[in-house]
Amino acid sequence: MEHEHTQYVAAPPDSVFAALADVGNLPRYFPQVIAARRGDGDNVSIEARYEGHTQHGEGWFRADESARKVEWGAEGSEYHGWLQVSPEAEGSRLTLFLATSRGDAPDSEVMGTLDAIRRLVEADA
User: What DSSP character marks residue 77?
Assistant: First the structure.
């Protein structure tokens, strides 16, 4: 299942991208993520809580500063996504794309994540 949503953020595009490109910020805007640590290269280690259980996972996380785009996923899984920041009016347009294998991320969760990012970045701006 694929989801794509856009949100306006009242902060400059470079500030929004900087917050998104920091793996350590993942727990601040993805409610299921408890901890995120960068490994070698693009590798990341994630601890997340789903349905009352803590799960550990490995994946990849890439930040392209020139495109203001962050991409992530897990090897051998259909799960992947990206966030892209574009200038808009006095702030930024943030687009979130998410592909899941089981359709287990309802649109309300995806939009909630975008709203959490907006609040995080606007508070820090």
Answer: S
**pTM for the predicted model, two decimal places:** 0.85
Q: What is the pLDDT along the chain (125 residues), one digit of tens a residue?
A: 888 999 999 999 999 999 999 999 989 888 788 999 999 999 999 998 888 899 999 999 999 999 999 999 988 888 899 999 999 999 999 999 988 776 566 677 778 888 888 888 888 76
Please tell me the distance from the alpha carbon of residue 105 to that of residue 125, in angstroms, as a whole number: 29
What's the token pair of residue 59? 């994946």
Judge whether 73 and 81 are in contact, CB under 8 Å: yes
Q: Evaluate whether the domain defined by 2-31+61-124 bears CATH number 3.10.20.90.
A: no
Residue 21 parent element (H or E): helix 13-21
